[in-house]
User: Which sequence fits this backbone?
């Protein structure tokens, strides 16, 4: 059972080798796939999607959860596989404000090798970036061989945040929607493994978290 309002994760994966399947459990939704090398290794992309009402699980308490640790091992194996096979993996974390994107990224990177991953959380576009092709500022952060890049928000800002906040025109939005599938096809055709996560929470839970950010000096920087 999950607490009302905690984020629900949906994932779309493209160009994953071998068989793939969604795995659901008490705390996780994960994506599993078998690489085409013929071995029996299984990799899991895992992320907390809630917590038990009776036993709330905070960040540090996950180290006591056997299933969480097993999935962390699979993430380490995934990274080793990417390094050894010179794979490029881009993972997008998108969703509503306060839905848990940053916390999910912290759990993803907790045990993997920092030499072979990086997180990207871009600030608002500069004057120069505003004059460029919209996708250009993101292209420079795409992963190189053996790297995993985790985007805390991505080019989907133009489909989600910018129209709501009035940061782009209707023409900009329509152009983005026409180009995004072509852009991502180019990435996949170039050999990048593209994984997209969407996080959503209820309005009541979002309001509670926003208020928490207003009053907590530890996370007040998250307010925008």
Assistant:
């Amino acid at each position: 059972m999950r607490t009302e309002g905690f984020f629900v994760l949906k994932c779309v994966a493209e160009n994953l080798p071998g068989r793939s399947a969604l795995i659901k459990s008490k705390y996780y939704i994960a994506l599993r796939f078998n690489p085409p090398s013929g071995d029996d290794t299984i990799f899991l992309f895992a992320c907390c999607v809630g917590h038990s009402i009776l036993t709330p699980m905070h960040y540090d308490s996950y180290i006591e959860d056997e299933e969480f640790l097993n999935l962390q091992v699979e993430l380490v194996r995934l990274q080793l596989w990417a390094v050894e096979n010179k794979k490029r993996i881009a993972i997008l974390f998108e969703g509503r404000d306060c839905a848990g994107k940053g916390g999910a990224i912290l759990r993803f990177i907790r045990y993997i090798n920092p030499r072979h991953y990086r997180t990207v959380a871009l600030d608002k576009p500069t004057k120069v970036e505003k004059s460029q092709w919209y996708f250009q500022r993101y292209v420079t952060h795409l992963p190189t061989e053996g790297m995993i890049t985790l985007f805390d928000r991505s080019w989907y800002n133009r489909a989600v945040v910018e129209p709501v906040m009035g940061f782009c025109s209707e023409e900009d939005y329509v152009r983005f929607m026409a180009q995004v599938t072509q852009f991502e096809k180019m990435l996949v055709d170039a050999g990048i493994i593209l994984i997209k996560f969407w996080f959503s929470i209820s309005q009541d839970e979002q309001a509670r978290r926003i208020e928490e950010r207003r009053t907590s000096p530890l996370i007040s920087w998250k307010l925008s």
